[in-house]
Design brief:
alpha/beta; Nucleotidyltransferase, domain 5; 4 helices
Length: about 130
């Protein structure tokens, strides 16, 4: 299965404080977006829904950790709060945050401003795209 170039994809990396976000609007190019700060679940779900609507996203890729049942349950619950009614796909996210931190080293002082979270979402979306292009 190859990505339809008109298919707009978004990936989210759900954390307890921030939600990393990235998009691909076709041609397999993935761009990280500003992270969504999470004050509470409902506010964060509303902000994710607004983001998905603004970009007219067709498919949502959700980072999913195979190692933590607790985080899997939290992520499933959060996705259940979304009003997004198009395709949602769970994508293995193991080590994406660590990989993102490695990519950021030397570029800037490490900050908790969400850039690493959105870079992790970019990595998750790139993994998904490479898995469907094989």
């Amino acid at each position: 299965m190859t990505q339809n170039t008109s298919n707009k994809l978004a990936a989210i990396d759900i954390g307890l404080k921030r939600i990393g976000v990235s998009i691909s609007l076709g041609l397999g190019i993935v761009n990280p977006q500003p992270a969504i700060l999470r004050k509470n679940r409902d506010q964060a779900a509303n902000d994710v829904d607004k983001f998905l609507q603004e970009w007219e996203i067709d498919t949502l890729i959700v980072g999913f950790p195979s190692a933590s049942i607790d985080m899997q349950n939290r992520i499933k619950h959060f996705v259940g709060l979304l009003k997004f009614n198009k395709t949602t796909i769970f994508q293995e996210e193991n080590m994406s945050s660590i990989e993102a931190e490695e990519q950021m080293k030397g570029e800037m002082k490490y900050k908790r401003d969400g850039r690493i979270d959105s870079l992790a979402a970019k990595i998750i979306l790139e993994r998904y795209l490479s898995s469907v292009s094989k």
